[in-house]
Design a protein that fits this description.
Blueprint (H helix, E strand, L loop, with lengths): L1 H10 L4 H4 L10 H7 L2 E7 L6 H11 L7 E6 L2 E5 L3 H10 L3 E2 L2 E7 L13 E9 L8 H8 L4 E7 L10 E8 L7 E6 L2 E10 L38 E2 L15
Parallel strand pairs: 10-11
Antiparallel strand pairs: 1-3, 1-5, 2-3, 4-5, 6-8, 6-10, 7-8, 9-10
This protein binds zinc ion (ZN).
Keywords: Metal-binding, Zinc, Zinc-finger
Organism: Coffea arabica
InterPro entries: At4g02000-like (IPR040256), DUF4283 (IPR025558), Zn_knuckle_CX2CX4HX4C (IPR025836), Znf_CCHC (IPR001878)
Amino acid sequence: MAKELVEIMQNFTLSSKGRGSTYLDLGDVDDGIMDCQDSLIGKIKGEKIANFTGVKKFVTVAWSYPKGLEVIELWPNLFQFTIPDAQDKERIWLRGPRVTDNQILVLREWEIGIEENDSAFNLAPLCVQFWNLPLHWLTKSVEKKIGAIFDEVKDVIIQQTGGKEGKHMKILVQADISQPLLRGTTVQMNGVNKWLSFRYEKCSDFCYSCGIIGHSERNCKEPAVVKSGQHQNQYGPWLRAVSSKGSPQKENNPKI
Ligand SMILES: [Zn+2]
């Protein structure tokens, strides 16, 4: 903001009224803080500008009709959600669905200036399935340990049966989505390396070249350098978990 102010002062010939600074006391913004403190700020990370009515309808239904919900569009793809009921707010903050029109809605609790802090919206919840696990690794403690490669593990869910999907585990994590999606990880035990592959549930659009959420391959500014013999796209639809009724997409899987 300081840079912006300097530019304005340099670019315009300001009248004395324009130059005159107004001084605000903390008490002047009390009402504004009261209005904001029950709110969540949500940023949609994607190339499409989300339609206000569509977002309002999505959150109302997906968050199970929170009492007194108010939605304000602050900026294209930036929204303020006021949720007066503390339990509703907590539930939505922790678990509320956040993918609309294949774009992720990253939520943060309101704090002063957050609407101007783009990096505040880099941490987002992702539901990650772990595949290729030996049966005796299917425990919460093992998954928590492996999940430590993400920024935070929120929950571990053990699938009781494999069903049509096959046996796997899933964890709810907070991940830095300004970085490429992790395709898997190697785990070493007794000197033997094992590759675990990841699938992401209800995953928003991501770039098949660099693996970052929020833009397409066509608009990628840092496409992956592909070495000879490597798969053309380092990322692809195989990273998406299909709905629990189906089975994971196996075609085009480059066997990473
Ligand atoms: Zn990219």
